[in-house]
Design a protein that fits this description.
Radius of gyration of chain B: 16 Å
CATH architecture of chain A: 3-Layer(aba) Sandwich
CATH topology of chain B: Hypothetical Protein Ychn, Chain: A
Oligomer: heterodimer
Radius of gyration of chain A: 12 Å
Number of helices of chain B: 4
Number of domains of chain A: 1
Strand content of chain B: 15-25%
Number of domains of chain B: 1
Shape of chain A: globular
Largest sheet of chain B: 5 strands, parallel
Helix content of chain A: 25-40%
CATH architecture of chain B: 3-Layer(aba) Sandwich
Strand order of the largest sheet of chain A: 4-3-2-1-5
Order of helices and strands of chain A: EHEEHEHE
Largest interface: A-B, 10 and 15 residues
Strand order of the largest sheet of chain B: 4-3-2-1-5
Structural class of chain B: alpha/beta
Number of strands of chain B: 5
Distance between the termini of chain B: 43 Å
Shape of chain B: globular
Structural class of chain A: alpha/beta
Largest sheet of chain A: 5 strands, parallel
CATH topology of chain A: Hypothetical Protein Ychn, Chain: A
């Protein structure tokens, strides 16, 4: 199952609490801030290793964030990659 | 040419989960979301309504949004069975967070654990939230 999250804080926390084995989470819009290692919401670091975490590259770029400041486990996708994630991880839940 | 004859008589039935995870009051989104649920059911789709997180409070009895001139959603929730929506579930863990018991809920809903809900979500065709 794919979770698309667009905010950090409570929205991200609620979503993370419901993740189970082999789920995939995609951070978009303001949620990409949670990818930063020093971010106040450290939920990404608590995720089990069988959860794949992706961040949308254009939202990172728009906010001037580079991968060096982010958790190593995070993988980056462009819009085509976004579509592939949706195709390969049904059903999709948008957490807004 | 008989165009009617070329239209499909039976719609492809999908299992649609509608997830209410926030209060229905405060903005028009909650109201619109309930409209979408009823519409999906009117098109004979298999509808499941799930209340979780803060959304469980939307089921509380004795809500009086009229005191703020807001629309009361309870009559809409009451009509769910009329639209043949009988699959209403509430997440057990979220009810515990707010200290709610089943008899405090205004409509009939099945209390289901987070892990069982997850199993059901995996079998859904589409998940909707707002």
């Amino acid at each position: 199952m794919l979770y698309i999250v667009n905010k950090k804080g409570e929205v991200l926390k609620d979503c993370v609490e419901r993740l189970t084995s082999h789920d995939v989470i995609l951070l978009i819009e303001d949620a990409v801030l949670a990818a930063v290692k020093t971010s106040p919401s450290s939920v990404i670091s608590t995720l089990a290793s069988d959860i794949s975490v992706y961040a949308l590259r254009s939202d990172m770029k728009a906010r001037g964030l580079d991968a060096q400041r982010c958790y190593e486990r995070i993988q980056y996708v462009d819009y085509a990659g976004f579509v592939e994630l949706v195709e390969n991880n049904k059903p999709v839940r948008s957490c807004f | 040419m008989n165009l009617i004859g070329t239209l499909p008589l039976v719609l492809d039935v999908k299992t649609l989960f509608f997830i209410i995870n926030k209060g229905l009051q405060g903005n028009v989104c909650g109201q619109e979301f309930l409209d979408i649920i009823l519409m999906a059911a009117a098109f004979d789709q298999k509808v499941v309504v799930l209340f979780e997180g803060d959304g469980v409070n939307a089921l509380l009895k004795n809500q009086q949004p009229e005191c703020l001139n807001l629309k009361n959603m309870m009559p809409v929730l009451d009509t769910l069975p009329v639209y043949d929506i009988n699959d209403v579930i509430v997440e057990k863990e979220s009810m515990e967070v707010y200290g709610l018991t089943e008899n405090e809920l205004a409509i009939k809903a099945a209390v289901v654990s987070r892990s069982d809900i997850k199993k059901r979500l995996r079998s859904a065709d589409h998940l909707f939230g707002f």
